[in-house]
Amino acid sequence: MLPRCLWLIASVFVVAVALPRVANAGIGEFIWEMSGPSMVGFPVECRVGLVDGEVDICTFLGIRLLGNGIPERIPERKIWLFLEGGPYFSNGKNASGVAFDFGDEFMVTFDPMVAFRTVQVKPDAKQPERFSMYHGIMGMSYNFMVGPNFKSFSNVAFKLRPVGLSFRARFNIEYNVRIYPNGFEAGDFGKVPSALTSGRAELVQGVTAFYIW
Predict the structure, then answer these.
(1) pTM, two decimal places
(2) pLDDT digits (tens, 9 = 90+) for 103-131
(3) pLDDT tens for residues 74-103?
(4) What would the 3-class secondary structure string for the chain be?
(5) Biggest CA pair distance of the chain
């Protein structure tokens, strides 16, 4: 486990660049308003051509890891397979009247999702893209939870991205929705729940914002 001061620095950095009251923010992800602990994470995002299977680009903390490199040179596609996932930790925000400590709960996710573009603003074929809008459908989110105060477990959600906006192919803002058929509850994390929530479906909303360097 990393020292808590390092987690604090990372959390403050994410929140500092966050939009107010969002679930995903900065160059990472901030998930809140769930029945369990709120989570801060740093997922990898990869965009893969759904037809040819070519990796257009993979980023982590806004840094390109794989793909064609320069975002402006990514092939002109209208449909992709998004492969996302990474490590998360609790940010200490209380939920449903239950106290959660900073850094005591950890999560690893894997989120595949099909996405398609509906709008693109581009002066001509030789000019870089100025703006585009895309949407994610047929997605899922697999979450594996682990911590010192509870037995590790997993949960699965349907994931949608009603809208994503890209500015000059580098700055991206994405609105996400996760629907858990079996929502989280405080008892899953070794806490005493303030109300009976077992078996209840749960919806978690959020916004991701990142810049591709």
Answers:
(1) 0.75
(2) 788 889 999 999 999 998 887 767 778 89
(3) 667 789 999 999 898 887 676 666 767 787
(4) CCCHHHHHHHHHHHHHCCCCCCCCCCCCEEECCCCCCCEEECCEEEEEECCCCCEEEEEECCEEEEECCCHHHCCCCCEEEEEEEEEEEEECCCECCECCCEEEEEEEEEEEEEEEEEEEECCCCCCCCCEEEEEEEEEEEEEEEEECCEEEEEEEEEEEEEEEEEECCCEEEEEEEEEECCCCCHHHHCCCCCCCCCCCCEEEEEEEEEECC
(5) 60
